[in-house]
Amino acid sequence: MFTGIIEAVGQIQTLQPRGGDVRLYVRTGKLDLGDVKLGDSIAVNGVCLTAVELPGDGFWADVSQETIRRSALAGLKAGSRVNLEKALTPASRLGGHLVSGHVDGVGTVLSLEQDARSWHFRIEAPAGLARYIAEKGSITVDGTSLTVNAVDGAVFHLNIVPHTMQETVMGHYQAGTAVNLEVDVIARYLERLLLGDKAAEPVASTDISLSFLAQNGYLKP
Predict the structure, then answer these.
(1) By its UniProt entry, which PANTHER family does this protein fall under (predicted)?
(2) Within this chain, do residues 148 and 203 fall inside the same structural domain, yes or no?
């Protein structure tokens, strides 16, 4: 688990094809690796990866085809800057929100414009994630815990303060940038809980609608 508070910006040094997937090397910059051991988790742009080698100034990690398909890591190349966060410990401050490091989908930056000293972003999420994104709720963008300012269909708005622009890769975003999205874990589990026994049925028959909620006692007549 992570907090969504970025600890450092690193850089992709090498990507090596390995039997259909990829092994990558991340230089970690100012991230302290003194307490990191082989097998520990580090979030790279919000994707939880396992450190399989620790040469000293960074780490190697394997990236599966599932991760490549479900995240924006496929668009990385040597020299790409990435957000980094080590897994939280029982003594960590939970400054953001609980982040699993399991990307739900890839969004697209639609626009950004300066608003006083901050920046206003509009990001479009995949249609299937829209129902999990709520005004003043939490969302993770490339591993950064953020508050949703407004929602318009699948498009959500963010206000990014100067510190976040300086200390994360958000300062390098432009219209068209693909970003990893992780919705609030509570929203995902709440949907499954509402389904009750129907959660075991095929996906096509488990869509939550107003009629479903009324039939199952969640709405008053």
Answers:
(1) RIBOFLAVIN SYNTHASE, RIBOFLAVIN SYNTHASE ALPHA CHAIN
(2) no
Residue 35 Ramachandran class (φ > 0 left, ψ -120 to 50 alpha, else beta): alpha
The answer to whether residues 180 and 195 belong to one domain is no
Looking at the structure, tell me whether residues 161 and 209 fall in a common domain.
no
* CA–CA dist 182, 148 (Å, integer): 13
- Give residue-wise pLDDT tens across range 33-87: 999 999 999 999 999 999 999 998 999 999 999 999 999 999 999 999 999 999 9
Query: For the chain, what is the radius of gyration of the CA atoms?
Result: 19
pTM of the model: 0.88
Same structural domain, 172 and 116: yes
In a domain, residue 93? The reply is no
Q: Using CB atoms within 10 A of its CB, is residue 39 exposed (0-12), middle (13-18) or buried (19+)?
A: exposed
3-state DSSP assignment of residue 89: coil
| Same domain, yes or no: 176 and 190 | no
Cα 141 to Cα 2, 61, 125, 160, distances in angstroms = 13, 21, 10, 12
Structure tokens at 115: 């608003």
> Which string of b and e fits 62-84 if b means at least 16 CB within 10 Å?
ebeeebbebbbbeebeeebbbbb
Sheet-wide strand order for 144-147:
144-147, 138-141, 178-183, 105-115, 118-124, 155-160, 150-152
